[in-house]
Structures are given as C-alpha cells and as structure tokens.
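Hi everyone, sorry if this is the wrong subforum. Our group has a chain we'd like a structural model of before ordering constructs, and none of us has done structure prediction before. Sequence below.
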Amino acid sequence: IGPARKRALLLHFGTASKVRAAALEDLQRAGFWAVGLAEGGSHTMDTFAWPDRTVLVMGSEDKGLRPLVQETCDFVVRIPSVTTFSTLNVSAAAAVCSYAWWSCKKG
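Answer:
Right subforum, don't worry. Here is the predicted structure as tokens:
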C-alpha cells in the first residue's frame, strides 16, 4: 500500500458543504482529481479510467453527496447495481470503489 498512499485519498463528506467543497478544491489544486460516488454518476466505477491521484468523495448515508460537493468533483461514478438493491451503505461503497481504483492501478 505504501506508494498508493501518495496517490489516493478517501473522503467522506456529510455536512457543511461550503467548507467541504473548499477543502476539496484545495486538494484539486494540489494535483488530485476529485471522483465522487453517487447513484446517478455518469461513469460506472468498473469501466472508469481512474486518475493516478484520486480523491474518492463519499456522501452521507441518507442524502449522498451534497449538490455543492458533487458539483466540485471532477467526475462522478456509480457502482453498477443488480436489480435486487440499488445502493450500498457508505462503508461498503467505499470498499468497492477503493478496490476498483486499486485494481485499475496495479496492472
């Protein structure tokens, strides 16, 4: 995991959207790409071309990404779902997306 720490961050933004968006913009200026996770994302996480320096942005359990935070993201991805359920809790979603990033970068 050593070198990956310099290339990936995981953030969970639930409240205080203006402060969170400003923090996200600071990370973007530092060279990270903000990739939000939302049910209506325009890319699926399994086919997405993950940037090397990624900040994975997660929303809250009940409301997901706040609009201001989602607008600040460079990309928004979604987890492809099956018909029996449409969402995962935030910790499971973070694990799935972190694995997608890692598997894309290891090869």
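For your construct planning: The first strand starts at residue 8 and ends at 12. The radius of gyration is 13 Å.
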